[in-house]
């Protein structure tokens, strides 16, 4: 297509008659022509930005003279369900300004090698040949001397699948270690996982429209989900009540029916108080709760543990639980279904059972224990804790119980130390009110699903459909074998089992152990005054016990005796992201590393501290697809509209070339064979040919085409889909969620003309949850949870992370960038102050003598940073906000906000091998906290 | 027993499955495409001899014996006055300069993209065109591909692969042959080709439609 948005440039001519007073001046005519010329084009391609907002917005990218001229939201997606708004136009100002960043000043266009000290800012341009050889030799040295586990990659969630897949493939072939992305970024809703055994209550975004009450809780979609925000407005127009629960009057509160200002970190108290009202006032949907959840299961009052079959019979099962049927007394809780199959469990009461040894034990129900606990959260007691009036708590509880309610939760909650308790309480509210698995209900989660071809690819040794079938048949057989071992298990559970097995031989490792052993976090994590007061021993002791008991066996890599040698950061930026700031990394980890290799398109703070920086293409300069998630249920394509600048290359090219160079150098150096830590024999001389299967997958487009075709073959994309059909259409709706556990965990059907509601299989088909009890589980009878008094949801105040400062520092994602990716984009920088800001309330500012625009120092016992103060009445007194995304190099002394975040890890999350509390990639694992850090603030000029 | 015989496409790796199978309704479909692929190759002396002796119709009739749907083969004799050179000239008149074109991309808005697309399609199924005389989007090549897919459908013992191959045929017909063959035939018919050419074009048109309908029904069921 060739054209112009307004009209052909040549036709824009303005007549200027002499003497005409209202004539357009020649200057303005030229301006108009020039302006119109900006909006002309000679080529149109599809684009998306593969950012970690995880939106999959389809854009039209207009090119002129081989360069990108501008982009526009495409808005071409068909409506899905009758009477439900479509997702169009998708997009936001970040995506619409993407092209401005292609030529930004922080672009890296040539391989760079450090010539001064790390972080000195002195670089020399080198050739790819030199760069590849240097990296290859470092990798070979590390493998030869200390094993492949000393080559470590940070997993990435930025940049799209074709930025991620190449290094994951490379790492897998090496036998290296990849640090679990979710353990790094902490987008892990731990409380959802504790409750459901997963956090994939991830309906399509249009399900929001079907809600009757929307609770925007720990989320600010007005900033962070701009493409989807219209569904909230449309639901409200349809009659839904929109409630915003947040400490600050955020952008989303502006358009709500009810804004509930809450004291930071006390959300569990509020949610539990709502639960108390729901139960006390008889508003609970007990039929739903007794079938879907563990509230009817029996617990021994003497031990606090569930009553299990092994209690009743020698050799009995560890995972058979019990109910007390109104007519027949003690009965096994069904394991193969949530349906109670005619049982009428007593919700409350105390009963006696005879144990295997003949003794008698008292049991009661989880609900009875819960109600006892909730008595501490009556509105008049909880109100002062969370700062919400009892009458408002009543109102909120009645709203949730009387309407199809959905909690729109972001990934803010998990970043609180006790975010798990908050989420468990939120889930409890939904469980008591019948609010999941039905249209317009649930709690927002995340599921990477649908692109089966992506997951199959790593198993392929040949191209094509026959190889695909061979692998899928193998998976079917493995699933069938697992099913024979556990006939009651659902496909989701079997998928998890297979994933667990695969993990034990894969590269993925939870980063907590790496950071503890090789980073510099151990000292912080052992500071008891910054931790949970419920801990009866040191963090060291808990971690040692968890490791000793084998809860993390085989995946806590690399071991203490294997310090890392080479670190790859492919599109990741730990020096900005990592809680703890520079200290744990630059003082703890960096000195151990022979080589820090950053692969990026821009000079991030981490790149500034690297040994080698390797330039890669941005979106619009390469082919890519956004991560497939269920929000829009679409696979969205981004084409190469223009070549990458200078020597920038794609990640596929880079790691393919590196694999080949390693093979060459290994052969020259006679370092060919080695065994990895799992005693698997590997060969470096074959690495190059293994990477691209002897040239079969020469380009990333070849790879993408294979993923799409295999996905179509697996039935998750329309038959006949290919990279060519995607290139024509821009995006395509998934037809299924796939045969792997990430998709199965959504527990919902994909229908062509219907909104997808997560967890509908659990409600409509009574399929059990993948938890220990096979029900949504609110009672966790692990000894550590009992020790912490967290066997049931409760509220705990945020621990004094950082010290006894007078202010609580919270955060959130900014409106202006997705993490730090857009911080080099001048067009976006012009939409805000262009530098880091600390948001302070008016009364606090007055008390501190700080004016808007002043420079302030924020400090605590962990560190300090300096930034500009922004004074606003929308923040509550005692709260400070610094939005996520500013690069540390934008702060004086390159000391970013993370300098004051100790990055504490909740000890309880070291539990493993308890039912569903066991590691799966991107799932259950300890993650660092950064919200609700205690700090002090002062004017920088007066600071000592 | 039936085996496939590729006229232009080549296996990229040695065949790992059976190379011949008992004749059945699926090999019949493969056989039909095999005849069509060879017929629409540029004619040579052997091609002329077959036209003169009515062997094209006989081969097609033999191939069609076990077809799972009704398909009338018929025949059309070559006029006696047509010699080998005349046969080539007639082919050129109908399909070359100013006539219908046997390459799908000639009608595509983006010919390069279209050719890349079919190449990738072949590649996914293990076929290549290194050194082939005909381009990837030539009618003969596309029929060749259909022949191979139908054979693989007949040869596989895997239910999953059978469905995959069947779906691939339906999709290839959807995306390619069903779309452009009617136009090709109409344009060629406008040139009033002589008997065997007219006959083959008619058979091509009818078979592609019938096979597409058959596969769609099969997959829907």
Compile the SSE list and pairings.
The complex is a heterodimer of chains A (944) and B (221).
Chain A: E1 3-4, H1 26-38, E2 40-41, E3 43-47, E4 59-64, E5 67-73, H2 93-96, H3 98-101, E6 112-114, E7 123-125, H4 128-146, E8 151-154, H5 161-174, E9 177-179, H6 181-185, H7 190-196, E10 213-217, H8 221-224, H9 229-237, E11 241-246, E12 258-261, H10 267-280, H11 286-292, E13 298-300, H12 309-312, E14 322-325, E15 329-332, E16 350-354, E17 360-365, H13 366-374, H14 379-386, H15 390-402, E18 405-409, H16 419-432, E19 442-443, H17 452-457, H18 465-485, H19 491-504, E20 508-509, H20 511-517, H21 522-525, H22 539-548, E21 566-570, H23 574-577, H24 582-589, E22 595-600, H25 605-608, E23 612-615, E24 624-625, E25 634-638, H26 651-669, E26 673-675, E27 681-683, H27 687-691, H28 700-714, H29 723-729, E28 731-733, H30 741-744, H31 760-764, H32 783-787, E29 807-810, H33 826-829, E30 837-841, H34 842-848, E31 855-859, E32 864-872, E33 879-881, E34 933-939
Parallel strand pairs in A: 8-9, 8-21, 9-20, 10-11, 10-18, 11-12, 18-19, 21-22, 22-23, 29-33, 30-32
Antiparallel strand pairs in A: 1-2, 3-4, 4-5, 6-7, 6-23, 13-17, 14-15, 16-17, 24-25, 25-28, 26-27, 29-34, 30-33, 31-32, 31-34
Helix pairs in contact in A: 4-26, 5-26, 7-16, 10-14, 10-15, 10-16, 14-15, 18-19
Chain B: E1 10-11, H1 25-39, H2 45-53, H3 55-64, H4 84-95, H5 111-124, E2 127-128, H6 139-155, H7 159-189, H8 195-220
Antiparallel strand pairs in B: 1-2
Q: Which fold name corresponds to the CATH topology of the domain at 203-444 and 768-787 in chain A?
A: Dimethylsulfoxide Reductase, domain 2
Top CATH class of chain B: Mainly Alpha
Give the neighbour order of strands across the main sheet of chain B.
Answer: 1-2
Helix content of chain B: 55-70%
Shape designation of chain B:
globular
Q: What coarse outline of chain A follows from CA principal-axis ratios?
A: globular
> Based on the structure given, which CATH architecture of chain B is correct?
Orthogonal Bundle
Contiguous runs where pLDDT drops below 50 for at least 5 residues of chain A: 1-18
The CATH topology annotation of chain B reads as TorD-like
Termini distance of chain B?
28 Å
How many structural units, i.e. domains of chain B?
1
């Amino acid at each position: 297509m060739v054209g112009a948005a307004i009209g052909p440039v040549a036709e824009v001519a303005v007549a200027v008659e002499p003497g005409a007073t209202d004539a357009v001046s020649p200057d303005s005519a030229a301006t108009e022509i020039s302006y119109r010329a900006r909006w002309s084009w000679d080529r149109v391609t599809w684009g998306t930005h593969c950012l970690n907002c995880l939106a999959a917005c389809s854009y039209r990218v207009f090119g002129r003279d081989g360069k990108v001229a501008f982009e526009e939201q495409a808005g071409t997606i068909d409506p899905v369900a009758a009477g439900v708004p479509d997702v169009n136009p998708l997009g936001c100002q970040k995506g619409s300004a993407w092209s401005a960043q292609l030529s930004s000043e922080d672009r890296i266009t040539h391989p760079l090698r450090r010539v001064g000290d790390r972080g000195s800012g002195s670089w020399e341009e080198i050739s790819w040949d030199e760069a590849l050889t240097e990296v290859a030799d470092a990798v070979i040295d590390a493998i030869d001397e200390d094993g492949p586990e000393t080559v470590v990659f940070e997993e990435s969630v930025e940049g799209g699948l074709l930025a991620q897949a190449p290094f994951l493939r490379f790492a897998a072939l090496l036998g290296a270690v990849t640090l679990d992305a979710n353990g790094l970024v902490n987008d892990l809703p731990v409380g959802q996982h504790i409750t459901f055994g997963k956090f994939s209550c991830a309906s399509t975004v249009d399900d929001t429209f079907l809600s009757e009450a929307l609770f925007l809780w720990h989320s600010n979609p007005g900033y962070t989900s701009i493409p989807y925000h219209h569904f909230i407005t449309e639901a409200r127009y349809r009659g839904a009540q929109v409630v915003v629960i947040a400490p600050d009057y955020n952008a989303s509160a502006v358009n709500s029916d009810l804004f509930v200002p809450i004291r930071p970190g006390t959300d569990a108290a509020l949610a539990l108080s709502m639960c108390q009202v729901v139960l006390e006032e008889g508003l609970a949907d007990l039929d739903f709760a007794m079938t879907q959840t563990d509230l009817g299961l029996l617990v021994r009052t003497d031990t606090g543990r569930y009553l299990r079959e092994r209690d009743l019979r020698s050799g009995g099962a560890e995972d058979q639980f019990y109910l007390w049927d109104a007519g027949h007394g003690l009965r096994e809780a069904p394991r193969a279904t949530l349906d109670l199959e005619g049982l009428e469990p007593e919700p409350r009461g105390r009963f006696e059972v005879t144990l295997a040894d003949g003794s008698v034990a008292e049991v009661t129900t989880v609900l009875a224990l819960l109600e006892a606990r909730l008595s501490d959260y009556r509105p008049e007691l909880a109100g002062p804790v969370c700062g919400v009036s009892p009458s408002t708590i009543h109102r909120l509880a009645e709203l949730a119980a009387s309407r199809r309610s959905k909690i729109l939760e972001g990934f803010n909650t998990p970043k609180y130390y006790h975010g798990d308790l908050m989420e468990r309480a939120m889930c409890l509210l939904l469980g008591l009110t019948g609010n999941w698995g039905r249209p317009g209900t649930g709690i927002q989660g995340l599921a990477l699903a649908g692109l089966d071809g992506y997951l199959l690819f790593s198993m392929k040794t040949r191209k094509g459909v026959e190889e695909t079938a061979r692998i899928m048949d193998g998976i079917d057989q493995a699933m069938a074998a697992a099913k024979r071992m556990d006939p009651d298990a659902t496909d989701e559970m079997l998928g998890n089992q297979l994933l667990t097995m695969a993990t034990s031989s894969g590269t993925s490792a939870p980063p907590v152990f790496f950071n503890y052993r090789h980073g510099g976090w151990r000292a912080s994590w052992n500071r008891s005054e910054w931790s949970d007061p419920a801990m009866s021993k040191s963090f060291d002791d808990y971690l040692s016990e968890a490791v000793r008991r084998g809860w993390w066996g085989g995946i806590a890599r690399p071991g203490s005796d294997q310090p890392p040698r080479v670190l790859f950061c492919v599109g990741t930026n730990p020096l900005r992201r990592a809680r703890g700031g520079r200290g744990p990394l630059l003082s703890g980890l960096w000195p151990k590393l022979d080589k820090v290799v950053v692969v990026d398109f821009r000079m991030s703070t981490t790149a500034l501290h690297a040994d080698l920086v390797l330039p890669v293409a941005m979106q619009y300069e390469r082919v890519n697809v956004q991560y497939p998630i269920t929000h829009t249920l679409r696979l969205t394509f981004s084409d190469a509209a223009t070549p990458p600048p200078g020597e920038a290359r794609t990640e596929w090219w880079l790691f393919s070339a590196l694999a080949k160079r390693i093979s060459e150098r290994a052969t020259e150096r006679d370092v060919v064979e080695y065994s990895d830590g799992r005693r698997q024999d590997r060969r470096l001389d074959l690495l190059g040919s293994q990477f691209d299967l002897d040239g079969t997958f020469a380009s990333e487009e070849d790879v993408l085409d294979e993923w799409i075709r295999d996905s179509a073959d697996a039935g998750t994309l329309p038959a006949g889909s290919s990279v060519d059909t995607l290139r024509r259409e821009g995006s395509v709706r998934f037809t299924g969620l796939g045969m792997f556990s990430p998709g199965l965990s959504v527990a919902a059907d994909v229908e062509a003309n219907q909104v997808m509601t997560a967890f509908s299989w659990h409600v409509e088909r009574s399929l059990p949850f993948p938890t220990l009890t096979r029900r949504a589980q609110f009672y966790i009878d692990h000894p550590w949870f009992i020790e912490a008094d967290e066997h049931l949801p409760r509220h705990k105040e945020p621990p004094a992370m950082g010290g006894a400062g007078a202010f609580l520092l919270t955060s959130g994602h900014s409106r202006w960038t997705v993490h730090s990716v857009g911080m080099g984009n001048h067009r976006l920088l012009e939409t805000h102050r262009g530098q880091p800001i600390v948001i302070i309330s008016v009364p606090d500012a007055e008390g501190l003598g700080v004016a808007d625009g002043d420079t302030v120092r924020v400090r605590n016992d962990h560190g300090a940073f300096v930034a500009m103060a922004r004074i606003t009445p929308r923040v509550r007194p005692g709260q400070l906000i610094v939005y996520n995304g500013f690069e540390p190099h934008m702060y004086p002394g390159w000391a970013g906000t993370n300098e004051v975040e100790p990055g504490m890890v909740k000890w309880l999350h070291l539990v493993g091998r308890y039912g569903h509390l066991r590691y799966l990639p991107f799932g259950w694992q300890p993650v660092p906290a950064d919200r609700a850090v205690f700090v002090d603030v002062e004017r920088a000029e007066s600071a000592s | 027993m039936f085996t496939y015989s590729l006229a232009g496409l080549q296996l990229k790796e040695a065949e790992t499955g059976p190379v011949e199978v008992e004749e059945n309704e699926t090999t019949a479909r493969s056989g039909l495409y095999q005849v069509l692929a060879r017929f629409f190759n540029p004619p040579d002396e052997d091609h002329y001899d077959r036209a003169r002796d009515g062997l094209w119709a006989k081969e097609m009739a033999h191939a069609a014996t076990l077809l799972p749907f009704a398909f009338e083969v018929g025949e059309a004799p070559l006029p006696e006055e047509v010699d080998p050179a005349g046969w080539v000239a007639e082919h050129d008149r109908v399909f070359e300069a100013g006539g219908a074109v046997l390459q799908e991309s000639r009608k595509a808005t983006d010919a390069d993209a279209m050719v890349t697309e079919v190449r990738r399609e072949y590649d996914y199924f293990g076929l290549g065109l290194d050194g082939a005389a005909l381009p990837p989007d030539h009618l003969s090549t596309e029929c060749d591909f259909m022949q191979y897919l139908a054979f693989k459908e007949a040869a596989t013992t895997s239910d999953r692969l059978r469905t995959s191959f069947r779906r691939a045929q339906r999709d290839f017909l959807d995306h390619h042959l069903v779309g452009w063959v009617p136009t090709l035939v109409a344009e060629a018919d406008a040139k009033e080709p002589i008997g065997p050419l007219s006959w083959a074009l008619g058979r091509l048109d009818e078979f592609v439609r019938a096979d597409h309908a058959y596969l769609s029904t099969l997959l829907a069921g």
